[in-house]
Specification:
- The chain has 81 residues and is an alpha+beta fold.
- It has a single domain, classed as 2-Layer Sandwich (Alpha-Beta Plaits), CATH 3.30.70.
- The chain is 30% helix and 32% strand.
- It contains two helices and four strands, in the order βαββαβ.
- It has helices at residues 17-32, 59-66, and strands spanning 4-11, 36-42, 49-56, 74-76.
- Strands 2-3-1-4 form a four-stranded antiparallel sheet, with helices on one face.
- A hairpin with a 6-residue loop joins strand 2 (36-42) and strand 3.
- The radius of gyration is 13 Å and the shape is globular.
- It starts with a strand and ends in a 5-residue tail after the last strand.
Amino acid sequence: MSRALTIVERVVPGAERAEYLAALPLRKQRAASVPAHFWVFEHASDRGRFIEFTEAGGEEALAAVHGTDVAAQCWREVQGG
């Protein structure tokens, strides 16, 4: 099965960081229900700069996670592991 991925960079102001982090478990749970995988990484030296990865079985699943058409930001797997 071919996989698909979205990568979103977010810069979260310090005053909003705690709220952003608190919302991540619900977003991960929502992705898992699709099913999709959801990971978030924070830049090692630039606090508040995040990269969000969402990976699923196809664009339709990613659209269900994001609630939008993801075609413009979607990456398709060309070789699996």
